[in-house]
Structures are given as C-alpha cells and as structure tokens.
Amino acid sequence: MITFTNNSDSEEEPCNERTSLMSAESPPVPSYQDGLPASEAGEAQAHRKRRTGSSRSPNNIADGDMSDSGVPVRESALENEEEELTLKYGAKHVIMLFVPVTLCMIVVVATIKSVRFYTEKNGQLIYTPFSEDTPSVGQRLLNSVLNTIIMISVIVVMTVFLVLLYKYRCYKFIHGWLILSSLMLLFLFTYIYLGEVLKTYNVAMDYPTLFLVIWNFGAVGMICIHWKGPLQLQQAYLIMISALMALVFIKYLPEWSAWVILGAISIYDLMAVLCPKGPLRMLVETAQERNEPIFPALIYSSAMMWTVGMAKPDAAARGPSRQMWDAAEDGRENHRSPSHTDSQMSETRSPVPTRPITSFEELEEEERGVKLGLGDFIFYSVLVGKAAATASGDWNTTLACFVAILIGLCLTLLLLAVFKKALPALPISITFGLVFYFSTDNLVRPFMDTLASHQLYI
Amino acid sequence: PALGLFLFTIARDPLRIIILIAGAFFWLVSLLLSSLIWFIAVKASDPKDEPLQKGLLIFGVMFSVLLQEAFRFLYYKLLRKAIEGLVALSEDGCSPISIQQMAYVAGVGFGLMSGAFSMINLLADALGPGTVGIHGDSQLYFLTSAFMTMVLIFLHTFWGILFFHGCEHRRWWEITAVVVMHLAVSGSTFCNPLYVGSLVPSYLLMAAAAAWAYLLSGGSAQNLRRFLLCKS
C-alpha cells in the first residue's frame, strides 16, 4: 500500500477542498501531500515503505495544519501555492520512491545474474507443495494454480490473524512476532546469502570473521529497524531485507507458480485494500481510529522522521510542521498498520521472516511523504528477478519489466494524488510488469535478435 | 555519453526523471507493437524463404520507425496536457518545466531506451569468451555497434527537440523531416557490413540535426563562440 504520511483523522475537513483542487494535475506527478516549504528541507530521506499500501492523503491533513499555522491570510493563495508545491514535491516523492525500488531491483538482479545458487532448484517451500516437474502442460498449470491458492490462503489467514491481534490489542504478541521474524531474516538469510556470494567469487572467509560480520550486521539492523537509527541506514536495511526476501522467493517458488502468484497477489491486494471489509483496510482504519503508529518495520516511508528530542534541530522543517506534528504522528501511525499487516503477510509467506518494524513509535515528527509497504518492494523485485533469471532474452526483458514497474508506480502515485486514500501499490505495476515480461520475452526478443544479427537499427 | 547527459542534466530534477522514464516507456510500447506485427508476419510466411525473410525484416524495421514516430507524437500530446495541468496549478502562471526541456528529456528517454535495447545483450555477450567475427563477419562488430548506438541515442534526442518544436509551431515539414531522417538512418543500416555506408551518413545526419536543434533552441553562432571561449 502506498500511504501518505502526516495524516491525521482529525483534520478531514480542509482536506476535502484540497482533494477537489488536487484533481487537476499533470499526469506523472502525484500530489505531494506536504505542501509545506519546510518539507523540502526534510525531504531527503525516504522512510520506510509501506507494503501494499493504502495511500492516505496526509496532504490534506498536513495542508490543513499548514493553513492554520501558516499565514492566516490569503487562504486561497496559500492553497494554490500548496498545490503547486504539492505537485513539485509530488515529483520529488515519486523519485524518492523510485530510488529505493530501483536499488532493490538492482541488488536482486545483480545477485541473480552472478550467484548461481538462487537459480538452482533445490526444493520448494511447504507453502507450494505441488511440484511443477510434471510431464503435461495441463498438469503443470493445475499444480501452479493449486500452489497459488494455497499460498494466497496462507497469506489471507495470516493477515486476518494480524488484524485480529491488532484489534484486540495484543501488541506484545505482534511485536514479539515481528522481532522474531526480523531476527531470523537478518541473521539466517544474510548468512546464507553471504555464504553463496563468497562461494561464487571464491573468496575464503574464516568462521570467526564471518560470525563477527554477520553479528554486527544483524545487531545494527535490529536496532535500526526496530528502534532508532539514522534514516538512511534504516532505509538501506529495509532495502536489503526486501532484496533478501525477494531472492528467497525467486529461489523457492517454481516458475509458473511464481507468475500466477504474482497475478493473484495483485488481485488480492486490490481487494484487501479497497473493499470495505478487506483486512488491510480495516487495519488502516483501526490504526487511524486509535491514532497509533503502524509498525514501522513493515513500511518504507519517504518522509523524514526524527524524534523530538534528537539533536537534529531541523528548525526549518520543525517550525511549520510543529503544528502538524501530532497530525503527522497520527498519520504515521495510521500508515504503519497496513504495512504491518503486510509484514505479517510476508512473514507468513516464508517460514520465518518477519518484517522488522522500524519502531519510531515514540515522539516522532514526520514530514510529509509517501509510504510504501515492504511487500511491494519484495514483489517488484521478485518480478524483475524472475525476469532476469528465467527469460531467455536476458537483459532486454529485465529492462522492459523494470521500466514497466516504474511506470506503474508512477501511475499509482498519481492515483494516490487523485484519490487521497490508501491505495494498493501492487496491481498496476505488477500488471504492467507481467504484460511486458511475457510480451517482451515472446515477441520482442526474436525481433531484436534478428535485428542484432544483421546489425540493423531501428 | 548518453549516461553523462542523463547524470548532468536530468538527474537533478525529479520531474525530468519521470518524463524520461515515461518516454522510455512509450518507446518500449512502440517496439512491442512493431515486433508484434513482425512476429505475425513471420509466422504467417514461409520461414525457409530467405529473401522473403529479409524483406519482412526490412518491412518490420520501417514499420517500427513509423510507429516510433507515432508514439513520439502521442507522447507529445500527453506532455502538452501535462504542461497545461502544471501551468494551471502553478502559482505564478508558468510551469516549472518548459516544453523544450520536456522535448529534450523525451528525446533522451527514447534514445536511452533504444540504445539500451540495442546494446545491452551485446555488452553481456562481450563479457564472455569468444572471438569477434570468427565466421567471416566483420571484426569491428562491437565497435561499430557501439558507435551506431551512440549516434542513434543522440539522434533520438535531437529528433525529440525538432519534433516537439515542429508540433508546437505547426510546421509539418519539420515533422516529416524528422521522420524521413529516421527512416534514412535505419535504412542506411541495411548496408551494414559495409560500415562506410551506414556510419558516415548517420554521423552527418546527426551533425545536421544537432545544428538544427541548437538553432531552434535559441542558440546561435555567437552563443557558441562565447561558450567555447568562456567569455561571460
């Protein structure tokens, strides 16, 4: 889900007019919720991303705050300015989301291309029990569909479970679960990954060094994600975790199942976020009602967050946003819950992984920004990684899928600007990605190969 | 060089990056459609017939060129709407990005994508073992491919500027000139193992297009001289 930060429920009214104003904007630029000039200063870091996100329009809230705290006169002028700033910063936010997604994909593709381990078929997860080594096409198709059904139902069950836990305030349990998952992810998967990379490049490393490296990596990661830490480090960790998860998926999901699962996940995402009874939507709304932060480890937000008492007196940013701070907090919390769900879902997907949640739960100021769930990262990377691994057209297909996903993300952010509520980030991008993958692999590749062999240029 | 262009001029402004990616996307879609047509044509024809295949290939190339230009036009329309939206929303009545900048970025987007698609498999293969031209093909395969790709990327950039300028001022002859140039460049690659036939005209055309685009963008010989001599 993509959500905007800085949403607080209490400030719905100003948003409405803003929403209507927002509708007319240029296509590729999502409205930047945060119209404050101060946000520029804080803009830089992307925070956690939310998974299949609901995008809320924090802008409205934030803008509302801004209007109150800002210059009281020239209401309309202020709004216009905010609109424009919104657009400009909307573009900035898109880029702030582009960069981490791109980085994650690059890491995944690089690993897939170089480390042989992740493309070997060494077995399957228990979530996909049906094998795809069957002789007939129909059987294979059936198996992959069955795999998908099992996987999706596991995800649904876990999501509903998470939402129930959240509803009944079993926070300790959720926290413990997430911490366990993140522990597992950070230590075990990193160990495996590092081992494979070292094997590929034939670099020897003795066990004590390895232990030291992994311990440091894992410990810093845990602190960064669940507690406080520099923003960029936290983002880097989230990206790495997403990449690791995506690699695990690419390795352990059989081919056809992977594609069908990708399609099914985006449909599920669409339903879960938009239907009134969808678990993700309920999660967001519950979090909003309670004005609590959603668990940070599940989302990646592009806004700045810093604790109030920190020695980072970004006065410019804090000044105007001070009023919005509470709103932001609320918004932030609201945003987190969906990603939380997502993380639960992602946890359920693999046997262990929990999305560590960066917990910025105590006083934090958040600038406006867009949040994207970590699950979105993961599935984008799975798509591109699979394209890199299995396509015979190699880089062309990968590149095509990459561009398709980025465009999908752009469009989703645009819709976010238009609708100003939580939106699922997966469907559009995954659809584009799938369409482009299959078409590029089957149609473009022969064409380009023939062209290249005759050295013709179009 | 194209990457340098990207880094220096586009990476700063997020709006431009978005336009770039969208441009690349449009090129990709045009490629997709043209390869679909070619694929259908090939499947419907006899795979053993060599000249027919070659003819089909040529047809595919021409068709693809036309489609690319059509998509460039579509992209132009989209960007016009976008500019109107941006202007309407901006406070002081002028948009944060001008149509010329957009033209430039769109051209780079097209060029980058086409260059990437042309080169990247070659590059990947070049990393592996092997000898170039072992079967009697030219030994300069990689070099010429690199140069051709570069000239094509630049050409796309210039064509973007020219095309948008033509659309803006409703000068149809400019647009047709761009299309004709594109066809000419692609056509020149048909005589390809004879590299003189393809590289030289392409570079000449590129120089012409560069000068034209420069003049259109408001440059002049005077500006150029001042720039080169680092005068203020």
TrEMBL record, chain A:
Its EC number is 3.4.23.-. It is a multi-pass membrane protein. Its main location: endoplasmic reticulum. One of its GO terms (molecular function) is aspartic endopeptidase activity, intramembrane cleaving. The chain crosses the membrane at residues 94-112, 145-166, 173-195, 207-227, 234-250, 256-275, 399-419, 425-444. GO terms for cellular component: endoplasmic reticulum membrane; gamma-secretase complex; Golgi membrane. The keyword Transferase does not apply. Residues 340-351 have a biased composition (Polar residues). InterPro entries: Peptidase_A22A (IPR001108), Preselin/SPP (IPR006639), Presenilin_C (IPR042524). GO terms for biological process: amyloid-beta formation; calcium ion homeostasis; membrane protein ectodomain proteolysis; Notch signaling pathway; protein processing. It is found in: Endoplasmic reticulum membrane; Golgi apparatus membrane. Keywords: Endoplasmic reticulum, Golgi apparatus, Hydrolase, Membrane, Notch signaling pathway, Protease, Transmembrane, Transmembrane helix. Coiled coil: none annotated. Homodimer. The PAL motif is required for normal active site conformation. Belongs to the peptidase A22A family. PANTHER family: PRESENILIN, PRESENILIN-2. This is Presenilin.
From TrEMBL, chain B:
Its main location: membrane. It is found in: Membrane. Keywords: Membrane, Notch signaling pathway, Transmembrane, Transmembrane helix. InterPro entries: Aph-1. It comes from the Eukaryota. GO terms for cellular component: gamma-secretase complex. GO terms for biological process: Notch signaling pathway; protein processing. The chain crosses the membrane at residues 17-41, 56-75, 102-120, 140-163, 175-196, 202-221. It is a multi-pass membrane protein. Belongs to the APH-1 family. This is Gamma-secretase subunit APH-1.
